[in-house]
Amino acid sequence: MGGERRVRQLRVVVEAEDYEAALAFYRDVLGLPEQESYSGEGGAQVAILDAGRATLEITNPAQKRMIDEVEVGRQVAPRIRLAFEVADTAGATEDLVDAGAALVAPPTVTPWQSLNARLDTPAGLHITLFEERGGVEN
Description:
The protein is of the alpha+beta class and about 140 residues long.
């Protein structure tokens, strides 16, 4: 394959029944800058928000269950969950709850030493906010 990367960007496309509310939540409250936006016929609208560096995390069912147990204490996540690294998990969680997100689990220190919170957010997305705080505990 040579030195050039085949995939240059990961873009997650989410349909939101209340487009304006979802856009305000993710852009204005969570703080994802708007890169581009387009309107089309029939009221079609899209905004492309910059979420920083993207990774695709593949887990098996046992790992997904373990992460749910550590972060929430029970199985709650659907097959796909978005995770956003933030500088201040507690502050961001409070802001998102104030903006209408449902708190699933408060900020919790994980065995891998990140501070993680879980929320149900607009457009039906289940998300983790995480703040890297140090190395992995052995």
